[in-house]
Amino acid sequence: MKRQNQDFIYSPSDLSNFIHCKHLTTLDKLALDGGLEKPVYTNKVMLALREKGEAFEKDILAKFQEEGKNIYSIEPGDYQAFEKTRHAMQQGYDIIYQARVGKENEWQGWADFLIKVEESSDLGNFSYQVMDTKLASETKAATIIQISLYTEAVAILQGKVPELMWVKTPDGDISYRTDDFMAYVRLVKKRFLEAVNLEESNTYPEPVMHCDICTWWEVCNKKRRDDDHLGFVAGMGSTQIKEVKNQGIETLQEFAELTSPIPFQPNKGAKQTYQKLRDQANIQYRSRNENYRPIYELLELEEQKGFFRLPEPSEHDIYLDLEGDPLVEPGGLEYMIGWYYLGEYQALWAKDQVEEKHIFEQFMSLAITIKAAHPEMHIYHYAPYEVTAFKRLMGKYVTFEEEMDQLLRSETFVDLYGVVKQGVRASVEKYSIKDLEKFFGYEREIDLREVSKHKSMYEFLLETNKTDEATPEMLEAIRLYNQDDCISTHRLHVWLESLRQEWIDFGVEILRPEPKAMDASEKITEHQLRIKPIYDALMADMPVNQEERTSQQQGKYILANMLDWYRREKKSFWWEFFRLLDLSEEELLEEKNALSMLRFTGNREPVKRSVIDSYRFEYQETDIRAGKKVKNMDGKNLGEVVSIDMRTRTVRIKKGPSNSDLHPSAILMLEDFPSEVKEEAIISLAIWVMENGIDSKDTPYKAARMLLLRQKPDSDFQANNDGDLLQTATHWAAALNHSYLPIQGPPGSGKSYTASRMILELIKQGKKIGVTALSHKVITNLLEKVWEHADDSNFPILISQKIDIEDGILPWFTSNTNEVIESKISSSNIIAGTSFMWAKTMFEGAVDYLFVDEAGQLSLIDTLAVAQSAKNLILLGDPQQLQQPQQGVHPEGTEVSALAHILQEQQTIRPEQGVFLDKTWRMHPDICTFDSEQFYENKLFPIEGLEHQAITGNTAYSGSGLRFITTLHEGNTNSSEEEVMAISAIVEDLCKGDVTYINAKGEAKTIDSSDIKIISPYNAQVSKLKGAMPEIEIGTVDKFQGQEAPIVIYSVATSSPQDAPRGMDFLYSPHRFNVAVSRARALFILVASPLILEPDCKSPSQIKLANPFCRFVEMV
């Protein structure tokens, strides 16, 4: 940001700062106006890297010259640079170096290169795309913002938006699809200009992540201190601050002086939560008034929590701390493992994936050796990060899996943060280990503000693959920081043991946790011994980095790491169960394997020696069903669900005599599906590949092997996706030679229609058909379509389906016995069942074609497991919609669905790979245009007639397409009363009797509640919406896949990305947003806080997540 005469000139870095913090932009502008003095920080490492970057840029220029490119160069600082850039573009130079682009007297920048491409524009039969040079192997968000702004400027000069933007790194060229990023950049730029053009800014220095490295930090912190900001109360989030301010409380002091128990009932959340926060504010305030004397209070004891979680100390205990950078691709890097053991500190460093794997194995080997010699040893850490990271590394590199499982099974890891939070209240502003150190007298070797600069710079060097530029001072600062954390964890442990002793001195008994065995079952050990030689053979000479593998190696890598996939997934069920045990009632509302907020109704039915108790619950979407065994929140068995009624929100639970007096506030379900049959199918496939080769031309497992290798379908059919797609798909399928055919069906594209016609035509050709999917419901839906089509065609067929259902419910033969279904193979045209049936050896080679419905949800491993049953696979689905949930941490490439494996980073399937159904029979053109651009590479189109769909009459929502209703709120996480009120008003307006829906045929219907569906990402919001509008069908996205309505309303609920309880990946999930938008025929209404459109994106992938929401608002 600088002044040029009377105008402000902005650069891409100003926009990046605005994204990080709105107040930062305010301060920068004040400094430019002379109202503040801007702090100065000189970074010598950054200066050195800038010089290297300029040298790299010159090398690229020299290579273009060597290639004989016609190059136009502009000198930096040339006052005619804008005009020269325009002239060079009009003349059609191959390369324009140091192009000056932007808007004079507003946005300006120097694009490293403009590259000429053969795409027509106003310039002629060519146009230009932006290329920036960066030393970093991985692109950062700031680079995307930079090239997006330059691309926008180039688009204006040539009258055409470039399809791609480029970053050239030492590793090669990286392309980015402009439509995936530009809407986010345009919207943020618009907000930025609105902010800087205000006469007076009312931004406030709310704490954000950027504070750690911001030069303005001291200025902002002083302001918050002067205001006695409520954010200084430990554990007080934006939701709680909002609630407390609604009670007229503005400062920490006012909250601390509030009478106890608190005199108000919060509108959201439990009163107990606010009582704890008031007590926390009080102890901090008392400490402040006593010259910040450290004060602590012991919390009320609760069995299995707090001090009850401390095992017997041992001199061989290890104190662990990791340093990691989540922005090092792919998936982050744990670059340091440090530990304190027997009075000595040690550390291991990693610069890349190879070294990360090595240091993880080194530490695990040490820990297992110590544990074997001293079984009483435990590994202490502070907060869950270390264990989460170790699970990720174990899964990522498929190494030390059994050893890690042993440590988890024996509860060797002990999280002292959990002990602190459940055992002590302390006069600290954050329950970080650094803030607690004053209680146990630990003094750090290095100041935290000092080390944060060194850490951020070193992590930048990691991300740019330039760690050789790290200074000795930088490395020593990080080492000391990690050493402090390790030793501090040890000192914290000693202090907690002394507090535990205080309770004992009061005469209270606190039992130690029972020691847990490390040994795995004989069955698991036998399995590991069996698969090891197969795994070793498939992984022989396998490169660690995926980029270095051939397609055959990648196929073998995926198959090898599927040998233990089901065991890995099963372990994760238990990890997930233990995670649920630590959640609050409010948090459990969003969990499918739980039912929370239970209240005993008083209704009890005696059944022999047992009882059936009835409970009411808050609305939530749950997988708990009648017949399921459930557990209490102590992890022990409670009983069995007799019935659950979502309409009345009641559940009846049968309990034995020992549990009859227990009335749980929440119940959990731990569901364990048998996977041995699928596991055997994968092992059989792997053995064949080991003995015969993955690319053998022999027919056994050929379809599965081709799928693994992502090869084009094997057939003599010449694909032509420009004609009749149903005919194309049918003829292509008929010509398959022990292969597979993917068919991608976007929302409303007639996937089931296409499949039913294909199936009947193949039956007419004498082929035997199999049908499978993730659920019986999906299978049955497809069979009904086939049955109806056969009936309409007067072509009788015989279907046999494996399903547990009463006789006569379905018009075809059903049985729940595998042997009975097997006996029907010869006499049936179609055999149907889930993957559990098709993976059995009795069905090997049973059918000519196996149709896998919703193959965008069915995992790749399940698809491979069932492939042995058929000569050919037909994969129907859409990986752009909802995917199969998984619990396990699996190696990259093994965790995806079958169709996602084929498409990889593509949004749509290529013509040579399979069939893309490019017509929707549902969405109005205005809705389809958005959906197609954002999720289907502009390849999805509405059929003729859908443009007639519209809302008419006396309403503010007449017309069709997209609407955005801005609803101002703050501090909301998973529910918003403000949005409930706004949506209630929308529904009332639409359903008052004088509003009409016109369908595609031009037929009119008065709108009522049946024409509207309301969707929200969170169960808590669904519950509030149902309470306000019980007549409307309301649910999460998962509930509505496959459904549609004339009008769909989407309630985001979360106030801002920072408030989102499941993070950006869930909030902005393109799969979920795609499903939500594409349910609508005529009108889609998004109701949200405007702050949802301004996430602080740290990477291109995060910008890509937020972009569809930003583009949506542009298209309204």
Automatic annotation (TrEMBL):
Keywords: ATP-binding, Helicase, Hydrolase, Nucleotide-binding. Residues 904-1089 form the DNA2/NAM7 helicase-like C-terminal domain. Gene3D superfamilies: P-loop containing nucleotide triphosphate hydrolases. It comes from the Bacteria. CDD domains: DEXXQc_Upf1-like, SF1_C_Upf1. GO terms for molecular function: 5'-3' DNA helicase activity; ATP binding; hydrolase activity. Pfam families: AAA_12, AAA_30, RNase_H_2. InterPro entries: Coronavir_polyprotein_1ab (IPR050534), DNA2/NAM7-like_C (IPR041679), P-loop_NTPase (IPR027417), RecB_nuclease_TM0106_put (IPR019993), SF1_C_Upf1 (IPR047187), YprB_RNase_H-like_dom (IPR038720). Residues 318-496 form the YprB ribonuclease H-like domain. This is RecB family nuclease, putative, TM0106 family. It comes from Belliella baltica (strain DSM 15883 / CIP 108006 / LMG 21964 / BA134).
